[in-house]
Amino acid sequence: MDENSSHFCFIKPIIIALVFALLIANVVLAQTPNDKPFRVMQEFRAAWIASVANINWPSKPGLTTAEQQKEAIVLLDLLQRLNFNAAILQIRPQADALYKSDLEPWSYFLTGKQGKAPEPYYDPLEFWVEAAHDRGIELHVWLNPYRAHHLSGGEESEASVVKAKPELVVKLKDGQYWMDPSLKAVQDQSAAVVKDIVKRYDIDGVHFDDYFYPYDSYNGGKDFPDSLSWNAYVKDGGKLSRGDWRRDAVNTFIERIYKEIKSEKKHVKFGLSPFGIWRPGYPESIEGMDQYEKLYADAKLWLNKGWIDYFTPQLYWKVNDIPHSFPVLTGWWQSENKKGRHLWPGMNIGLGGDDKNVDEVVNQIMITRGMLPESKGAVHWSIAGIVTHEKLRKGLLDGPYKQQAIVPASPWLNNKKPAEPIVTVAPKGNMLNVNWLKRDNTDVFRWVVYFKFGNKWSYKIMNRKDTNLDLLPFTTATNGKDKNFLSDFAVTAIDRTGNESEIVIQKVGLGL
Description:
CATH architecture of the largest domain: Alpha-Beta Barrel
Largest sheet: 9 strands, parallel
């Protein structure tokens, strides 16, 4: 671990050479259960990166390709430095595309003109995926399935669904356009977009947020204007109430998306981040908006049915906010997690960078760990919080995110362990150079190098392209005199669904 680095001591090259000759001569394999290291920390640590209204990236429309890429790298480097392991990037904010698409136009938020490609040309999503994976960060794509045009979204191009397929959209009182979720053509359009992305890009997840039917404030408090499709349903003999009919349309779509993602690439996770309260009174002390009635989103059903791989209710309230209490809502959602999916709450980290708000974020992370020990994790709204607030960055890195972590495994997607890597060691100056290679064609996403100095096991998580790590022969104890010698090490492979290979320990004996 990094905390050992300050205690590493160097000894004369001639002694080091002798020590390593003895080390290498005495390396043996051992698999004694009592000698196994603790497992690597497993915790999903993600941040949302919003493109709508240029909230997070890119910072404004019309940046050059180099400027866009520089901003992306700054954000990914920050996540890597803070030991995050996932980014949720918004790539379809208004039936458009922050990637190369034959189905929808380039996004206004990218180039300043809908339908215009970046100059010089590049594919932003391809760039983000590659850069994220090189840093050991999963890249989840965030899409809005129904919003057709945002108020800040510039002029619609002729290829926009608003102009090309006006029969699929309605205009809300605030000026936004929304696709009608009940229409099969709308569902087909959004499903085709998802399938196209999953097929062509090496992404790790697909993500929807809380926007299904729009909040009624967008329509001046009036009901969603879907009378044409509703009347057609009734005329055809439909028996459901209008509310149930709307919910059924969304439910059908969610189930379809889950199945179609899995039919294309089983390892790609499907995540949802609905409004944090299902209905007032669930559980008893909870008050607030009723998403079941207002957004026609039966998020509890989706979790009950297991139509998702991870569930991220937006729990943007404080621990002691009694009507919307973070731990109370976390516990209730977990009680509805009938299929044992990942429950990774959404947290608001944009409240400020003072000590009080930093403590709130840290406390929520620790509460989540205690309440959800089988699959720890959190998603942070938004990355702006850690970009802006130095105290928050320090609070996370000195506190709950001090140690690296891998994304928890998803055994319902794949529970087969990858083969353990082929490991070799050799002296390298005053270091022990550990090398590893894949044993088969498994798609390895990360590597974990475990090492033991004295009685203490530590580990370092390496990225997919890493093939070696140098270890020093000993650390110096806190008293400044005693030496803790390197006695054991192991290397494991982590696959795309978080499975870890068997730990095969190599024992380093000094032979003295």
